[in-house]
C-alpha cells in the first residue's frame, strides 16, 4: 500500500467522525466542502481545474456547490465519503502520479479537518517512513510556497535534514516536523508549529511580507478555498 492510501484511510476515519458542518482550516469551507473538493479533484479533474482557475469565493464555486448540496443529508454525505474511500481505479489518469501528487494533498487536508474549528486537535504521531515520504516531497512544494519571499528560506527538521527552498544572501530557517512545515508552506501559518529563526531584520522582512500577502492569509492561519497550493 502506498502512503497516499494509508493517509486516505486515516482521513476517511476522520471524515466519518467529524461534524460535516464543522469549520476547517480552508476559510469558508466546512468538512462537507472539503470532502466534496477531494472527490471532485479525483473523479472530475477538468471541473476541478476550472474551479481552481476561476478563483471564486467560497460558496460561489462553479461545480463544487452541486456536489455539496447532494451531500447535505446523512445518506448523501455517507455516499460521498464512500466514493472517496473507494479511491481511484488504475485506469484513472489522476491516480498515476501516486504519492507524488496525492500524499501532501491528503496530509494537509487531513490537518485542515483536524485543526479547524474552536478546538483544534493535537499533532499526530505518524510512522517514521511516512514522515520521510512527506519530507521527500516537501522541497518542490515549498519552493512554490515561498517563491515570492524577499529573503532566502531553509527548511529544517529538528535533529534531521535541511533543504534550501529559496536562495538569497539573507535567509530564515523554518524549523519543524515535515507535516508542520507543509502546513506553513501552504499558508496555514498560525496552525503550524514552526519556528522562524534568523537575523531579526531578516525574520521581520519574511513575516511582514507574508502578512501582507492576501493569497497566503497568514494572519488567519487559513488557506484559500481548500486547495493546498499557496495560490489558486
TrEMBL record:
<feature type="domain" description="Mycothiol-dependent maleylpyruvate isomerase metal-binding">
    <location>
        <begin position="8"/>
        <end position="90"/>
    </location>
</feature>
<protein>
    <submittedName>
        <fullName>TIGR03085 family protein</fullName>
    </submittedName>
</protein>
<dbReference type="InterPro" id="IPR034660">
    <property type="entry name" value="DinB/YfiT-like"/>
</dbReference>
<dbReference type="GO" id="GO:0046872">
    <property type="term" value="F:metal ion binding"/>
</dbReference>
<dbReference type="InterPro" id="IPR017517">
    <property type="entry name" value="Maleyloyr_isom"/>
</dbReference>
<feature type="region of interest" description="Disordered">
    <location>
        <begin position="209"/>
        <end position="232"/>
    </location>
</feature>
<dbReference type="InterPro" id="IPR017519">
    <property type="entry name" value="CHP03085"/>
</dbReference>
<dbReference type="Pfam" id="PF11716">
    <property type="entry name" value="MDMPI_N"/>
</dbReference>
<dbReference type="InterPro" id="IPR024344">
    <property type="entry name" value="MDMPI_metal-binding"/>
</dbReference>
Amino acid at each position: 500500500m502506498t502512503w497516499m492510501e494509508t493517509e486516505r484511510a486515516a482521513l476517511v476515519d476522520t471524515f466519518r467522525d467529524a461534524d460535516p458542518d464543522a469549520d476547517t482550516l480552508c476559510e469558508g469551507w466546512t468538512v462537507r466542502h472539503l470532502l466534496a473538493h477531494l472527490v471532485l479533484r479525483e473523479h472530475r479533474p477538468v471541473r476541478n481545474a476550472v474551479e481552481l482557475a476561476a478563483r471564486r469565493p467560497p460558496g460561489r464555486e462553479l461545480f463544487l456547490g452541486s456536489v455539496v448540496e447532494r451531500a447535505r443529508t446523512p445518506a448523501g454525505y455517507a455516499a460521498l465519503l464512500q466514493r472517496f474511500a473507494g479511491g481511484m481505479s488504475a485506469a484513472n489518469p489522476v491516480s498515476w502520479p501516486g504519492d507524488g501528487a496525492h500524499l501532501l494533498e491528503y496530509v494537509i487536508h487531513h490537518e485542515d479537518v483536524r485543526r479547524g474549528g474552536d478546538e483544534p486537535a493535537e499533532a499526530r504521531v505518524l510512522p517514521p517512513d511516512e514522515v520521510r515520504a512527506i519530507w521527500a516531497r516537501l522541497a518542490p512544494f515549498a519552493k512554490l510556497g515561498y517563491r515570492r519571499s524577499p529573503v532566502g528560506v531553509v527548511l529544517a527538521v529538528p535533529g534531521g535534514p535541511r533543504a534550501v527552498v529559496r536562495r538569497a544572501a539573507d535567509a530564515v530557517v523554518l524549523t519543524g516536523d515535515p507535516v508542520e512545515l507543509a502546513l506553513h508552506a501552504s499558508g496555514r501559518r498560525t496552525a503550524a508549529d514552526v519556528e522562524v529563526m534568523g537575523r531579526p531584520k531578516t525574520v521581520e522582512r519574511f513575516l511582514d511580507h507574508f502578512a501582507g500577502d492576501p493569497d497566503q492569509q497568514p494572519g488567519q492561519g487559513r488557506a484559500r478555498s481548500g486547495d493546498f497550493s499557496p495560490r489558486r
